[in-house]
Design brief:
alpha+beta; 2 domains; 10 strands; 26% strand; binds zinc ion
Length: 242
Amino acid sequence: MIGTESCGARPPRVFRSRAWPGGSWHGAAVPASIVGTTSVTCPACGQSRDNQIVQSINTATNPAAKQRLLDGELNVLVCDCGRRTQLAANVLFHDPDADYFCQVCPGGEAAMDQAAQAFRGSGAEGTQRIVPSLNALVEKVKLLDAGLEDWAIEMAKVLLLASTPEQDLDRVLLFDDVDHEAGVLHWMLFDPSGSSARSVASPLAAYGKLASRTHGRPGIHELRIDRAWGLEAVRRMITGAN
Ligand SMILES: [Zn+2]
């Protein structure tokens, strides 16, 4: 296991990468990309090798890293035995044009809290998010590119799951893409084990109705816009609390 021990302003100790310049990880001090290498062991065959780890993506100066993220190629160990392993690492995603920051923080609750404190103390403006995994970041970036509000999407997910026969609100449901012409959102709905997924669709208009409730928009210090946030927001909406 790597990269699961901390998530703060500095990279975890396990990486032999450069430190964040000046201890700052927001604003102009952040370089185009922070790349290090770390020794990782293939969980299938036990072979160790040095693997590149990207810990910072600036979409303006390093669009290639963003593409690798979207392609599922970022921070992946590809072993000679054929096994592909996603490496858990802290990754800061910054889209300066959209004024958007998202921090991947795979180290658990304490690490997420620590990252939230760092965001709050940074004085950075714009949209700030914290997510637990690269997969979650990929979804956020797809939403950003599609011009969709992640908070309204999380609410739409809860309503969509509640409308399925299983009504399983814990089921993994990820945004895939939007078809504006057909007025449809496409999603990937995973089975309870999370191992396989099928495509589902929902009306874009239903999302639009949620997104138009601008009073439901999260505050600047609400950094974790996820299923739990969506559940609570839907509950508030239904009970008429806002
Ligand atoms: Zn292997």
